[in-house]
Amino acid sequence: MWNNGVIKIDKTSVTFSVKHFEDPSEFGIDEGRISKLELRVKGKIVANYDRGWDIKPSDDAVEKALQYVLATYN
């Protein structure tokens, strides 16, 4: 299942798109339910996971957004 949304962290809006499943997988983030994840700030991809990290979060706002998505969907 795909979910999309926007997370407001301080003054930064982080847009997310996440593909998650009912059951955990060895391909998921931390072997969890998320197999694909994209985080964007102002249209730029700032984190991307596609069965492995392509782009890891590089600042506090993006890391906080990632933690929210993990807590919600993983």
Low-confidence stretches: none
Distance between the termini: 12 Å
Number of strands: 5
Number of separate structural domains: 1
User: Could you tell me the strand content as a percent range?
Assistant: over 45%
Structural class: alpha+beta
Q: What's the overall average pLDDT, rounded?
A: 96
Radius of gyration: 11 Å
Largest sheet: 5 strands, antiparallel
Could you estimate the helical fraction of the residues in percent? Answer: 10-25%
Helix-strand topology string: EEEEEH
Protein name: DUF7678 domain-containing protein
InterPro entries: DUF7678 (IPR056095)
Domain DUF7678: 1-74
Pfam families: DUF7678
Q: Mind sketching the topology for me?
A:
Elements: E1 2-9, E2 12-20, E3 34-41, E4 44-50, E5 53-55, H1 60-73
Antiparallel strand pairs: 1-2, 2-3, 3-4, 4-5
Notes on the protein architecture:
The chain is an alpha+beta fold and 74 residues long. The protein has one domain. 19% of the residues lie in helices and 47% in strands. It is built from one helix and five strands; from the N terminus they run βββββα. A hairpin with a 2-residue loop joins strand 1 and strand 2. The longest helix is centred in the C-terminal third of the chain and has 14 residues.
